[in-house]
Structures are given as structure tokens and as C-alpha cells.
Amino acid sequence: MDFSYPPEVEQFRAELRDWLSANLTDELIAARRPTGRDDAAFDMLRAWNRTMADAGWAAVSWPREYGGRGATVLEQLVYTEETTRARAPMPLNVIGMNNIAPAIMQYGTESQKTTLLPRMMRADDIWCQGMSEPEAGSDLAALRTRAVTDGEHFVVNGQKIWTSLGHRAQWCQLYVRTDPEAPKHKGISCLIVDMSSPGIEVRPLVTLNGDTDFAELFFHDVRVPADALLGPLNGGWQVATTTLSHERAGAARLYAEMQVRLEELVDDIATHSDALHDPVTLRRLGEIAVRIKYLEVLCQRSISAALHGGPDKVAFGSASLAKTVWGEIGQDLAALAFDVLGTRGGNAPWANYRLTSRSLTIAGGTTQINKNITAQRVLGLPRS
């Protein structure tokens, strides 16, 4: 894992640092983790997305023809580390940028690409992803939302749940069953759905900490134009597993984010308590610091495999395991913070993180599913 940076990458780093220094304000940093209930912060971050897009910093890994910089793997690594350490807000359309845009780039029509991608990058349109259902969470292939062909339209009926920003979205990348007789993985299609379409009902979901970051979506005879199909009919599984081949350093955000959280925790402990003199607290902080360093090595192993043309198995396995480790570290860090600080501090940020951290081993693939993936696809173990 040799990450030596050539002069052009260091120039990229310097340019990014200068731009962040000139444009990233304390107010934006304070609002960098928006909630579904804070309209003012949401609008501020939408404006920030536009500022980044106009300056060419919103999607550096995207190809230039779609508004990106075509950044190399090392430039992507530098970008992720620098923006995370500077505490720059994540894009409001983070799911759209990382998951939906790649599918549009690969399978979308030219009109879809030129119309939808620039507005997504600027957060002019908010996107959500209709995957999870009450009986199909981590098992996407078990989804039951149906789409039936009717002339020049699909008619959609069903329900989605835990849809991030579903109540704010203008567009949804919706996965539906179009062939109920086919094997589970082969009867799914992907549609691009206008969320203002008649028959869509959205109900925000209130989570443990009182936020409304998620929503339930209900589809009642929703008519979706046939040309809104993304990818081949009954080929939704391959659309869902599309990855952005030029987004190969995103794993760096996992360890960089935890490093930032640990630094913030140490600062808050020093400000609000004398626990830094407690050997038990110091031991717990030290253990987390070591685990974050291990996470950094694990992430960089995945990035190195991509950088040097290593086997996809190594990159995929390391990234999957890193997500599991990241979630467990985040939960333990949150528990330590709450044990030491409780509800102290403005708006009790660590008490809030203690609650939201429960989702870290669920969202984006549960720890149990990730461990099965590692066991079967990396270690070659049998299913039973």
C-alpha cells in the first residue's frame, strides 16, 4: 500500500485546501449533518452544493462530460481526506451521487444524463432510492412492489420504507417487480419516477432522536412512462449492483470521519469534564484510536487494490469488511461519549449520536449480511 503523491496530486490538494479555506464557513460546518426537520439548515446546504458544483468540486470523480473532474484514484483519495478533515458538509444527494448517478451514466438515455445529472449535482433536485420494503430490507431480491405494463406506461403499486429524504425528493430511483414468474433476482426492473406523480403518498418516519430523515412511500396505481425505465426490462438487479468505476477512493471517508469524531470527542471531554485523567477513559480512547488506524489500513488496502490493478475480490472484500468495522467503531465511540459526557454540551450532540449510531450497523447493508458476503465471496466458505 504505497500512497506516494506525485506533484500534480499535491497541486490538486493545495488547490482544494485553498478553495475550502476561502469558502467553507463555521456556519456550514455546524450544519454539516442536517436533519429532516431543519429546513433552514437544509436550504443552506443546498446552496453549498450549488457553490461546490459551480466551482467544479461537487463530484470530482465523475467524468468531465457530466460535470466532474475525471479525478484519478489518488486525487479522489486526497479529496475525500481533505473535505472530511475540513468538516465540509456531505452532498445532500449523497445516495444519488454515489449510487443513482452511476446507473444513469451507464444505462440512461442521453436526455436523462444531460437533464438529471447536473441538477442532481447541484441539489436542485433531491433524489431518493426506493429499495427497502417491510419484508425486503437487506434482501432486495424479495421486493414485492409491482409494475404492470399498460400501453405506454407502467402502473406501480406497493410500498417502500426507510427511504432517505423520501419526503423531500423530487425524483426516485425505484426498484419494482415486473416479472413475478422469474427467479427473484431476474424479475426486477428499475424506474426513474417523478415524485409529484398522482398516487404517491409519502409519510415521514420519526427516528429515535426525533429526526425525520426517512420516509415511507406508498404507490397507488401510479402511472410511470415506459421511457422512464432505467436499464433493460427485468434487468434491475444489474442496475442495482452498478458501481461507479471511477469512484474508487470513497472508503477513505470511513476512517477519516472516525478520526474527526474522535478528535471532537477528546476536545469535548477536555472542555466539559476531567475524564482525561481517568485511566479507564484513556484506555477506551486509546483502543478506539488503534481500531481507527486499523480501519485506515483496511480501507487503504481496498484503494491500493484499485490503484494497482489488484483482484476485484481484494478490493470488494476489504471494502465490505471496512463498512462493518466502521459501524462497530462508531457505536463504541458513541457509547464512550455518552458514558463520559451524557447530555452535556449545546443540543447534546453526543446524546444524539448515541441514538443515531444504532443505525450504523444496519444502513447500507447490515453487519450480518456483510459478514456473510465476506465469508462466502472472499473466504470461499459454504452457505451452511
TrEMBL record:
InterPro entries: Acyl-CoA_DH_CS, Acyl-CoA_Oxase/DH_mid-dom, Acyl-CoA_Oxase/DH_mid-dom_sf, AcylCo_DH-like_C, AcylCo_DH/oxidase_C, AcylCoA_DH/ox_N, AcylCoA_DH/ox_N_sf, AcylCoA_DH/oxidase_NM_dom_sf. It comes from the Bacteria. Its cofactor is FAD. Residues 7-122 form the Acyl-CoA dehydrogenase/oxidase N-terminal domain. GO terms for molecular function: acyl-CoA dehydrogenase activity; flavin adenine dinucleotide binding. Residues 128-222 form the Acyl-CoA oxidase/dehydrogenase middle domain. Keywords: FAD, Flavoprotein, Oxidoreductase. Pfam families: Acyl-CoA_dh_1, Acyl-CoA_dh_M, Acyl-CoA_dh_N. Residues 234-379 form the Acyl-CoA dehydrogenase/oxidase C-terminal domain. One of its GO terms (cellular component) is plasma membrane. PANTHER family: ACYL-COA DEHYDROGENASE, ACYL-COA DEHYDROGENASE FADE29. Belongs to the acyl-CoA dehydrogenase family. This is Acyl-CoA dehydrogenase. It comes from Mycobacterium palustre. The lineage of its organism: Bacteria, Bacillati, Actinomycetota, Actinomycetes, Mycobacteriales.
